[in-house]
Each structure stands twice: as structure tokens, then as C-alpha cells.
Amino acid sequence: MIEICIVTRNYQKTMAGFVKWEIGSRRVYTFNPETVTEQTYRGQPAEYAIKVCFAQSKNVIWEIMQPLSRSTIFQEFLDRHGQGIHHIAFNRGDRPWDERIQEFECPEPEDWFPAPPLYRRTQKWLPY
After folding, report:
1. Which has the higher per-residue pLDDT, 58 or 30?
2. Strands of the chain, DSSP E
3. CATH 3.10.180.10 at 3-122, yes or no
4. Of the residues 9, 24, 39, 65, which has the fewest C-beta atoms closer than 10 A?
């Protein structure tokens, strides 16, 4: 695992929590039509803005996303699930893409998360 992405309503509070956990190397960016060209949402041209923050703890990058406009997958996530883990990235080295995908194939989504959805369990420990 090389990255954990968290969606939050308030990146400043989340980053303050990371300071308490002694997670360092924090960087904050604003992605919007002026800084990112050819923006899309659900495959269609769109304009949106998000705060994108990065922090590092040992070998893991923490990516914190705060939507600043409605038309983003991150706002969809907040609306449906609240704050929590959006995705996790793994380093698979030089393995071809098809092999990487096969590693994660399973017959039913329940095989991935047999317990309650991961985002519900993580909300209790997020630092805000």
C-alpha cells in the first residue's frame, strides 16, 4: 500500500489531526479550471474545484480531498457516505495492467468487504 485517500468536508481540520499524529510533509493545492485543463466529470467536460492535500507517514502518502464545488466524485462520496476513505493505492511494480486487475477480481463485491463498508468503520478514527 502506497497511498490512502480521504475525502473530507474540511481539509484544515483533517490536516490539523495529521499534525497530532506526527504525519509530516504536508502540501496543499487547489485544483480548478485555472490550474487544471480539460477537466471532466463522469466522462463529460466540466468545471470544478477541489483542495488536494498530501501528507507522508513513513512509506504511505495520505491524500486528502475536499470538494469546493458540487460536480466531483468526491462530493458524491460525501453525499452518499460522509467523510472517510475514498480509495487505497498499491504499488504493483512492473506487472502488466491486466495482471494487476486479475489480482483484484472476485465474483461478488461482498468478497471484498464482508464486514460493514470500510468507510463507516474508518469515520471513528479520522482526526477531526
Report:
1. 30
2. 3-7, 24-31, 40-41, 44-45, 50-57, 60-67, 84-89
3. yes
4. 24
